[in-house]
Amino acid sequence: xxxxxxxxxxxxxxxxxxxxxxxxxxxxxxxxxxxxxxxxxxxxxxxxxxxxxxxxxxxxxxxxxxxxxxxxxxxxxxxxxxxxxxxxxxxxxxxxxxxxxxxxxxxxxxxxxxxxxxxxxxxxxxxxxxxxxxxxxxxxxxxxxxxxxxxxxxxxxxxxxxxxxxxxxxxxxxxxxxxxxxxxxxxxxxxxxxxxxxxxxxxxxxxxxxxxxxxxxxxxxxxxxxxxxxxxxxxxxxxxxxxxxxxxxxxxxxxxxxxxxxxxxxxxxxxxxxxxxxxxxxxxxxxxxxxxxxxxxxxxxxxxxxxxxxxxxxxxxxxxxxxxxxxxxxxxxxxxxxxxxxxxxxxxxxxxxxxxxxxxxxxxxxxxxxxxxxxxxxxxxxxxxxxxxxxxxxxxxxxxxxxxxxxxxxxxxxxxxxxxxxxxxxxxxxxxxxxxxxxxxxxxxxxxxxxxxxxxxxxxxxxxxxxxxxxxxxxxxxxxxxxxxxxxxxxxxxxxxxxxxxxxxxxxxxxxxxxxxxxxxxxxxxxxxxxxxxxxxxxxxxxxxxxxxxxxxxxxxxxxxxxxxxxxxxxxxxxxxxxxxxxxxxxxxxxxxxxxxxxxxxxxxxxxxxxxxxxxxxxxxxxxxxxxxxxxxxxxxxxxxxxxxxxxxxxx
Length: 652
Ligand SMILES: Nc1ncnc2c1ncn2[C@@H]1O[C@H](COP(=O)(O)OP(=O)(O)O)[C@@H](O)[C@H]1O
Ligand SMILES: [Mg+2]
Hints:
Elements: H1 3-9, H2 16-21, H3 34-39, H4 44-63, E1 86-98, H5 100-106, H6 109-129, E2 133-138, E3 141-146, H7 155-172, E4 182-195, E5 207-209, H8 211-222, E6 228-231, H9 232-238, E7 242-250, E8 259-267, H10 273-278, H11 289-303, E9 309-313, H12 320-331, E10 337-342, H13 353-363, H14 371-381, H15 393-399, H16 415-436, E11 439-444, H17 451-463, E12 469-475, E13 489-493, H18 499-509, H19 517-527, H20 531-543, E14 547-550, E15 553-556, H21 567-583, H22 588-598, H23 616-632
Parallel strand pairs: 4-6, 9-12, 9-13, 10-11, 11-12
Antiparallel strand pairs: 1-3, 1-4, 2-3, 4-5, 6-8, 7-8, 14-15
Helix pairs in contact: 6-7, 11-12, 13-14, 18-20, 19-20, 21-23, 22-23
Bound molecules: adenosine-5'-diphosphate and magnesium ion (MG).
């Protein structure tokens, strides 16, 4: 596409030089905003014309793959990113409204405008709810980013949740013409260059260059109405969190290789988040002997009515869930009951979410169960001591959104009373269970518990002081546990793995085949005793084709190049970094230069013994900051992003 010709066709030929001077290529066009054009010096009229023409281009490309988008992937030879540009992993979502053409023929422009506004409102609301960033409206298409400007550790999951919610919300939208509306959603994850690519100033921040937006747009075009389609890269990050259907491979314009696409059916019924993300592929436990011994000791004490609460704190990926699994495995050998309460980052404000989720699993609800069946299952689970009208069943049914029909009168109690009665019923159920056998309760990721659940756990912590129940609560260091300082509460802070433990973990992953010494040293140095990172980086090395098996060992197949960050790790590293930069924005540049200067002296992993570990930020500053900063925020050309390539002079 010839930009000068295109501008001339709009009667705006005189701006060709401005566009050329600012290296506005066809790939850049879809990313231009009104503010961008203003910065280029275009007055209001021409700006409107250009934006309308860009929207038209985008629309044509989405409707008709043949005239396809000019959002081509940028090969290495594209316009050089400016030094401020940042390379990072992004999950990109494209949403398109289906049915708008039919609708526009039936509605007058004002009504149509109202429909589009409602649609955009619905889409934007869901994207923002999941902390995504609405980058652009293109006709009735919406482009959104998950992972920029701020990263979270689960961007792919956030995007898919937003996609499902959008599909549902748009299908519900009413139109004056009664024409059903629907959305199609495409999602892809990949490395992009994002940031201050063109022009200057904050207005230009939103440019994203790379194949990923293009892929998301193509996948969106593949989707049926109401469907969410994801790329293989996104699918990898989703683990078993969602039910997915393989749509096979497709030849997509702009992609040399056929691309596999997946249709998202809905949330899966995994036992817990850990299982969903890790599947059954558990590496055997290394180290943690002291922690397990302490937990088993507390279990024995708890059965005798003492020391019933253990608070297990540690940063993401340090192994909190893994330890909880190990404990549950130990207790399988004896008479006991295990109850699990998992916090979810998507339900921090949903009253009693972890508790209701546990009840749903314990009652054995199936997706297709009719309300009466669910109600019967709930009654079997919670045999109410009190008959109607005092029974707590209708209250809990209400929390679970199960209609009780004629079976119970509609509960008419004040919210305060409702909660108190519900708590009473749940505590009574726990007492009943504990009378039959000792109970292990694991409350995982309490930093994501909603306030009502936390209140219930206040009561549980009180109540179990005289019950044979061990409650293990896991959480990240930023959560201030409210149950410390009580005689029956123990606080345990998880330390980083020691070098030999990380090495043992690597060994498990390689099936006992030693890695070349320099590769092993790199992994140990860069992962700093965080098991999640050890696992991901080792797997990335094994899958990279960098090594070949030579008898009992692995050897390098060639010189050791700088390795990319495994995509499964990118989100968590970026999330750390973004949290940090939010906290210390004003010190960022100073830290960056400090970070650069310390990359040559690699960290000495330290044993953070129980209870001695500093708060998260201490760890970040002393241990991980330069790791993340030097690796991800390298503010230079992408090729210099060599987090794995330690300078030869570095000491370990
Ligand atoms: N001691 C350990 N031995 C082996 N693997 C571990 C160990 N601790 C953690 N892992 C693995 O590291 C990853 C992250 O651990 P996880 O328990 O999910 O961390 P957290 O719950 O603290 O975020 C998981 O794949 C887990 O199996
Ligand atoms: Mg966990």
